[in-house]
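Thread title: Can someone regenerate the structure for this chain?

I was given the following input by a collaborator and told the matching C-alpha cells would be attached. They weren't. Posting the sequence so someone can regenerate them.
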Amino acid sequence: MTRAERRSPNLLLTVVVPAYNEAATVEIALRRIREVALRLEVVAVNDVDRVIHHEKNRGKGAAIRSGIAVATGDAVVVQDADLEYDPADLPSLLLPIRARQADAVYGSRFQGGPHRVLYFWHYVGNRFLTLLSNMFTNLNLTDLETCYKLVRTDLIKRLPLSSNRFGFEVEITARLAQARARIWEIPISYSGRTYAEGKKITWRDGFAALFHILRYNVFVPRNAHVWRLPAK
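Best answer:
Regenerated them for you:
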C-alpha cells in the first residue's frame, strides 16, 4: 500500500450510473463496477444499492444531480452505462483524494491512456471546447468532456448545479474553478462507441456547450461565498 493510500484507506466511493436507454449494457456496466477493489456505493438512476426512477427522462444532468443528492460516500463519480469508460481506472482516480491533495480528479482521455481510434471531428470539438473553457476558468485541463470527474461529496453537494443535459460537464467544471477546488488529471483508457453502437452526442450538443461555457462562467451565483473553498 502506498503512502497516499494509507492517508485515507477506507474512503467510500459513490458511483452514480445514469442508465436511461442503456438496457443493453447497464447490467454489464454494473458488474464491472462491482469488480473494482474499492468500497463502493452504486446509485443507478432511471433504468446496486439504490435505484432512483424519474417519471420521464429529464436528461443526464438531472439524473446525475438526483444521484448526488442521495450519495453517502466520501467522493462521487459518474459512470456511464455505455461501456466506454473502464471502472478499473477508478482506484487511480481516487488516489489524489485519498492523499488529501485534491478536491476533484478528472480522468483524461488525452494523456496517453489506451483508447479506441474514432471520430476526428469529435476530437477537434472536444479540444476546442476544453480550450475555451480553460480560457474562462484559468485551468489547464486536457479533457473537459470526460465522464470521469471524481469529486469530494461534501463539495459537490454544495455546488449550485442546475444543468439537465450534457451541459453538466461544462457547469461542474466552471463551478469547481469558482470554488477554488484543487483539480488533478490522471490518464484513463477509453473505448468510444460509434453511432451504430448507440453513441448519442451530436454536433448540436457541441454548439450547446458553447452557450453553456459562457453561461456558467460569466454568470456566477451571488452566493458563491457559501460554497467557495478557502484560498490555498
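Residues 120-137 form the longest helix (18 residues).
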